[in-house]
Amino acid sequence: MWKIKVNADKCQAVYFTKRRKVPDPPKLYRRAISWSKDTKYLGVTLDSRLTYDKHITNVFKQTRSTKARLYPLLGRNSKLSLQNKLLLYKTILRPKMTYASPVWGAAAHSHIQKLEATQNIIERQIINAPWFIRNRYILKDLRLRPVISHIKNLANKFFHSVDNHTNQAIKDIPTYDPSNPRKKKRPRTLLLAGD
Asked: Cβ(39)–Cβ(60) under 8 Å?
C-alpha cells in the first residue's frame, strides 16, 4: 500500500446535476470539501451541468492565442507554401481544437460554432482571402471539412475502437442506446446527428 496522504485543501468536489439543490459536501479526513462548479480532468474542464461551455471557451482562447503566435508563419506576408500552412493548421491548431472531442462533441451548437468561426478565420488567414469569398468555398478549395464533421469522424473512430477493444475492463463498461431520447445529450448522440 502506498503511504500517500491526500491533501484535503487541494481536493475538489463537483456534483453533476441539473438540480439547484445540492447535498451536504463530502468529507475527507473530517474536513468538508466544498462544492465546485467545475474541475479540470485530463485537460477537459467538466462543469456541473456537463454543458462543456467553459471547456470550449478555453479551447477557443488557446487556439486563438496559438494562431496569433503562428501569425508570422500563417499570415499574408509569410513565404511558406499553402501546403506547409495547411500542415501547420492540421498538426498544431486543429488537434488543439479537437482534443477529447468524443467526450464534448455533443455540446450545444452555439458552443461548437465558436470553433467553426475560429477555423474560418484561420483558413482565411492561410489563403489571404478577400471579404467577399464565402467560407464554404474556401473549405472546399482547401479540402477541409467543417469542425463538426471532423469531430464526428474522430468520435466514430474512438467509439469503434472502444467497442472492439481487447481489454476486459473496457468491455465491461455498459453501453447505451444513443437514439434513446433524453433531455441531456450523451457523447454517442454525436454519431446520430446529421452533417
From this structure: no
